[in-house]
Amino acid sequence: MHLSGLLTLFVGPLLVYLLRDSRTDFVARAAREALNFQLTLLLAWIITLISMFFIVGFFVLPFLGLISVAMPVWAAAMTSRGESYRYVVSLRLI
User: Core-most of 50, 75, 80, 91, by most CB within 10 Å?
Assistant: First the structure.
């Protein structure tokens, strides 16, 4: 579910979160973390695109692009080992 956010933004983690089995607490926590991170990224991308009118967004754009790819890949690697991963830069919306 962490990697599904790379292609589907927040839709993939949202579907996993909504369709999960109630007995799998580990999957629910991972889906919630991925969903919160993807929603935070969506908000960050919107703010960055708006700030591009003021030139500031052009400096933030490469950093945000790197975070958008690197963090889900790292989270997927940690989760595949059976470890619970918590994103550092994520708003806890859900």
Answer: 75
Q: Which two three-digit tokens encode residue 62?
A: 């490469």
pTM, to two decimals: 0.88
Phi, psi torsion values for 90, nearest 5 degrees:
-150, 135
Q: Distance (Å, rounded) from C-alpha 26 to C-alpha 70? A: 22
Distance, CA of 50 to CA of 14 (rounded, Å):
26
Alpha helix segments (H runs only) across 4-90: 4-8, 11-19, 25-51, 56-80
Domain extent listing, the chain: 4-80
Determine the length of the chain.
Answer: 94
